[in-house]
Design a protein that fits this description.
The complex is a heterodimer of chains A (117) and B (349).
Chain A (H helix, E strand, L loop, with lengths): L4 H24 L28 H25 L1 H28 L7
Helix pairs in contact in A: 2-3
Chain B lengths: L1 H6 L4 H35 L19 H12 L10 H17 L10 E3 L2 E3 L13 H21 L2 H32 L4 H7 L10 H14 L24 H26 L12 H24 L7 H30 L1
Antiparallel strand pairs in B: 1-2
The chains are: A mainly alpha (117), B mainly alpha (349).
């Protein structure tokens, strides 16, 4: 673990600096709260309805597709690093894996999951 | 090196570690602060305006450089507004979540050639080579940046913020795929994922030549990852007010703003390390510590400028265009790049 000490120190510094700055500025900055000032910004009109409402299902779809393809890249990495040792066996294995994935990719493309209107 | 550390009553290792932490922390921070000025002066230059030139220290205008200090002081002294509807804890946490991953990003990137002095080998990256994380660390930490944006958007409880946050999340994940595929192709040809080894492998020929397609993909993704124009849909000041930053002001805004620029510096450093030979100098086999650091800095600053340059030259995309490009153009392109290099590697045996 000794090798990772610098990164922990850097993390501490990175946490400390914003915390210190934000708290220091509290000593100097003005504080005159009025209700209008603290209301939610909505182009100058009184906010109507909740902000945290339903949103397009496409975002959810993108998240699911990302998960599938990201796991794919994670699986690709060890193979890419050990390519020479795995030789032909690895190539065939990876070819099957990639074929299945590309098949799925073509499927979601044809189903229109990648089109954003 | 030894005399310096003896002067401070520290062992050379500890002394070098402190120097490295200072460099890795303060270096990107300083460049980021300068970039806020470069951005405005550069945009003024490109658009044939004057740009900020009024701020002065004791009457010296210094081509507008005091503007950085003026902005910092202004943000520091501004009243801090936390909207009554907002989630207070998360609203405070978001600037931290944006700042920390930005600063950590530089931790494994070598900013110069390792050198020997007094029997010790000094490595010019915060973590020594062979730390087991390698290039995966900046990529993982870079992916954490989305939390700062999302938490800021969600906690503000503002419609514009949430629109910006949703966009940012989908945009960042879409481009991460093509980005990681492009990087894995480099891991494959180099047979390693430690940045020191990657730079070692770029001796004689920088990766940008064999991996040109990968470079184009990676470069484009970096704009989406750093939320910069032409892909700045999280902020999108011409359509959704200021996106996830709408409710932010004073020092909290300054912190998020600064961390975006630090991300830009880290992105430039990543491009340089992966595709432009890191600290390598053309036609010099062993540039030595000073020249190598200068070379790395020059390349990184150049790419920082390219980010600014592109922002003020290229018109912005539409959101659906970005998603279409990410999934239907960049992903196939990076896959082709990957398969092409896999094929070449296999042919060579």
């Amino acid at each position: 673990m000794r090798g990772y000490a610098p990164i922990l120190i850097l993390l501490l510094v990175a946490v400390a600096l914003p915390v210190v700055i934000l708290n220091l500025s509290r000593l100097l900055r003005p504080h005159w709260p009025t209700p209008t000032k603290y209301s939610t910004y909505e182009c100058g009109v009184v906010p109507v309805t909740e902000a945290r409402e339903k949103f397009s299902v496409r975002y959810y779809l993108v998240a699911v597709m990302f998960l599938v393809f990201d796991v794919e890249t994670v699986f690709l990495m060890p193979w890419a690093l050990q390519m020479k040792e795995l030789a032909l066996f690895g190539l065939i294995e990876m070819g099957i894996f990639l074929f299945l994935l590309l098949f799925g990719y073509g499927y979601i493309w044809s189903k229109g999951a990648l089109t954003w209107e | 090196m030894d005399t310096l550390s003896a002067l401070l009553h520290l062992s050379p290792e500890t002394f070098w570690m402190i120097v490295k932490i200072l460099v890795v922390f303060a270096g990107p921070l300083t460049i980021a602060a300068l970039l806020t000025w470069v951005e405005r002066r550069g945009s003024a230059m490109i658009q044939d305006r004057i740009g900020p030139n009024r701020a002065a220290i004791f009457g010296f205008r210094l081509i507008g450089l005091p503007q950085i200090a003026a902005d910092g002081i202004k943000a520091f002294l501004k009243e801090d507004l936390v909207p009554a509807e907002a989630n207070k804890v998360l609203f405070w946490l978001a600037p931290l979540l944006a700042f920390i991953p930005a600063v950590l990003g530089m931790a494994v990137i070598p900013f110069g050639q390792s050198f020997e002095s007094g029997g010790h080998t000094y490595h010019m990256s915060l973590l020594d080579p062979g730390n087991g994380m390698g290039m995966l660390f900046p990529m993982a930490i870079g992916a954490m940046a989305v939390y700062g944006v999302l938490v800021a958007a969600w906690s503000s409880n503002n419609k514009w913020s949430i629109l910006g946050g949703m966009r940012a999340s989908a945009q960042m994940v879409s481009d991460e795929l093509s980005m990681s595929l492009a990087v894995i192709a480099i891991f494959m040809t180099a047979g390693a994922y430690d940045p020191h080894d990657l730079i070692q492998a770029q001796y004689g020929l920088w990766n940008v030549v064999p991996h040109f397609l990968g470079f184009l993909v990676f470069f484009t993704c970096m704009f989406a990852e750093t939320n910069r124009l032409p892909f700045d849909f999280a902020e999108g000041e011409s359509e959704i007010v200021a996106g996830f930053l709408t409710e932010y002001g004073s020092m909290k805004f300054a912190l998020i703003y600064l961390s975006e620029y630090i991300h830009l510096v880290v992105a430039s450093a990543l491009i340089v390390t992966l595709y432009f030979g890191g600290w390598r100098v053309p036609f010099v086999a062993n540039p030595g510590p000073w020249l190598s650091v200068a070379s790395f800095l020059a390349k990184t600053l150049f790419f920082c400028w390219v980010f600014v340059w592109v922002r003020w030259t290229v018109p912005r995309f539409r959101y659906d265009q970005l998603m279409k490009m990410g999934w239907k153009v960049l992903l196939p392109l990076s896959l082709i790049n990957f398969l092409f290099h896999a094929f070449l590697m296999f042919r060579r045996g």
